[in-house]
């Protein structure tokens, strides 16, 4: 199919939920994407932090193919070895004890919200059902996770929303303190907001979260859906933030491109989910489980976490150099590991387009933040080439001071 026909048929047959890039991807390998004409692109997006090992990793393909020949799906009514091996491996990576598997990020957060409520009511016998989340956050598109999300634009037209959610401006310590009341059960947070524009929490804010977790016995739920699986230079981002979640959720990169989500919780909390209390048909099936197992094995064996931390530090420095060579264009460079944001002084659509024309695929979020989430396996050379091209593009860009947009927070 030609690109124009594909575009036409997409309009005709699919719900118009996405503003798509002017690009049809036919195949991919490593850190490269290929369009219908065979044009090559450097992938600095990795399917929004899904393909952390790059595309078509031979060992992932091998694991999926051999599992597909053995067993693709079996109901959660049966015991399953692949699922158990994965849960054991996940638990070994952190301080928590039990896993619930599902199929997406939103479902993992939905499970976390349900488990918090159930634990508070069944185990603690308290009506502490309210969840605090932060402005700019993104937690998913189901009714509850959309309500948890701290961005009004995604809620338009979907009212009435479920009850039990409170929102606090990110990094506003006093507002966080004030938001806690006798109904508050927990806090849900991303260590680095992805969709929100690569925003980090301040040290004081994290200290306040830790304090509330102890003094008010609030449950801390960390959303590692985008930050997990090595993305930020540690396997889980909370390791670097000095946070110790009572539960965390992960998804995107978990099964190396297959749909899978997971909620990881401590024993006492996990026990609040009795048989029949929660579930999902496909959750933790053999196929995504082997892909996730293999993925974790490769990340650990190949030292990808260290590589990504190191490469990310270099990239931040490099982008700051670009910033000083192109005054008035870059407002801030931020991020950890290979979760990087380049905030521009002006709306970034033209810069984004120019980069795409030069063969670099990345994301523009919050109108002016170039978001980079390349595979953790990306060669240094590709990052360097991107920096050179970014510099060229910014130097050529006709930026007028009247385009300048206000500070976002
Ligand atoms: C992508 C994302 C989600 C939602 O995951 P889906 O698989 O799209 O449901 C939730 N939280 C964060 C931080 C995400 O990046």
Topology, element by element:
Blueprint: H1 3-13, E1 25-29, E2 32-35, E3 40-43, H2 46-49, H3 58-70, H4 81-92, E4 98-102, H5 105-123, E5 130-134, H6 143-148, E6 165-168, H7 173-179, E7 184-189, E8 192-193, E9 199-200, H8 203-215, E10 219-223, H9 238-241, E11 247-250, E12 261-265, H10 267-270, H11 286-301, H12 304-325, E13 330-336, E14 339-344, H13 349-357, E15 360-361, E16 363-365, E17 369-372, H14 380-396
Parallel strand pairs: 3-15, 5-6, 5-7, 7-10, 10-11
Antiparallel strand pairs: 1-2, 2-3, 4-12, 8-9, 11-12, 13-14, 14-17, 16-17
Helix pairs in contact: 3-11, 4-11, 12-14
The structure holds pyridoxal-5'-phosphate.
Provide a concise account of the structure shown:
The protein is an alpha/beta fold and 409 residues long.
The overall number of domains is 2
Enumerate the distinct ligands. Answer: pyridoxal-5'-phosphate
Shape estimate: globular
Question: CATH topology of the largest domain, which one?
Answer: Aspartate Aminotransferase, domain 2
N/C terminus separation: 44 Å
Mean pLDDT, to the nearest integer, reads 97
Low-confidence stretches: none
Helical proportion?
25-40%
Number of strands: 17
Q: Strand-residue fraction? A: 15-25%
CATH C-level label of the largest domain: Alpha Beta
CATH superfamily of the largest domain: Type I PLP-dependent aspartate aminotransferase-like (Major domain)
Broad structural category:
alpha/beta
Helix run count = 14
Let me know the largest β-sheet: 7 strands, mixed
What's the CATH architecture name of the largest domain? 3-Layer(aba) Sandwich
Instruction: Specify Rg, calculated over alpha carbons.
Output: 21 Å
Strand ordering within the main sheet? 4-12-11-10-7-5-6
């Amino acid at each position: 199919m030609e690109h124009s026909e594909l575009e036409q048929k997409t309009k005709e047959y699919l719900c118009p939920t996405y503003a798509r890039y002017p690009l049809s991807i036919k195949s991919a390998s490593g850190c490269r994407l290929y369009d219908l004409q065979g044009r090559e692109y450097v992938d600095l997006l990795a399917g929004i932090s899904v393909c952390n090992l790059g595309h078509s990793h031979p060992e992932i393909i091998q694991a999926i193919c051999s599992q597909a020949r053995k067993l693709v799906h079996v109901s959660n009514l049966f015991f399953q070895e692949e699922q158990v091996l994965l849960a054991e491996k996940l638990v070994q990576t952190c301080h928590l004890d039990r896993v619930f598997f599902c199929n997406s990020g939103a479902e993992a957060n939905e499970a976390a919200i349900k488990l918090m409520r159930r634990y508070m009511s069944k185990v603690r016998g308290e009506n502490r059902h309210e969840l605090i989340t932060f402005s700019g956050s993104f937690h998913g598109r189901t009714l509850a996770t959309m309500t948890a999300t701290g961005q009004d634009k995604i809620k338009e037209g979907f009212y009435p929303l479920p009850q039990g959610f409170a929102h606090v401006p990110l990094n506003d310590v006093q507002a966080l303190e004030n938001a806690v009341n006798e109904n508050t059960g927990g806090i849900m947070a991303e260590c680095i907001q992805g969709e929100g524009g690569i925003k980090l929490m301040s040290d004081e804010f994290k200290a306040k979260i830790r304090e509330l977790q102890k003094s008010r016995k609030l449950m801390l739920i960390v959303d590692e859906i985008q930050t997990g699986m090595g993305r930020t230079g540690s396997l889980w981002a909370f390791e670097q933030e000095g946070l110790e979640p009572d539960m965390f959720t992960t998804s995107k990169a978990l099964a190396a491109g297959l749909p899978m989500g997971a909620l990881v919780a401590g024993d006492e909390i996990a026990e609040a989910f009795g048989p029949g209390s929660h579930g999902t048909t496909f959750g933790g099936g053999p196929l995504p489980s082997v892909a996730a197992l293999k993925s974790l094995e490769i990340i650990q064996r190949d030292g990808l976490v260290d590589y990504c931390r190191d490469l990310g530090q270099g990239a931040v420095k490099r982008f700051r150099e670009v910033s000083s060579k192109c005054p008035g264009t870059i407002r801030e460079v931020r991020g950890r590991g290979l979760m990087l944001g380049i905030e521009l002084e002006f709306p970034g659509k033209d810069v984004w387009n120019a980069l795409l024309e030069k063969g670099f695929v990345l994301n523009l979020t919050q109108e002016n933040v170039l978001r980079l989430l390349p595979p953790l396996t990306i060669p240094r050379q590709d990052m360097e080439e991107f920096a050179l091209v970014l510099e060229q593009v910014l130097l050529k860009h006709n930026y007028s001071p009247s385009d300048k947009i206000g500070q976002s927070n």
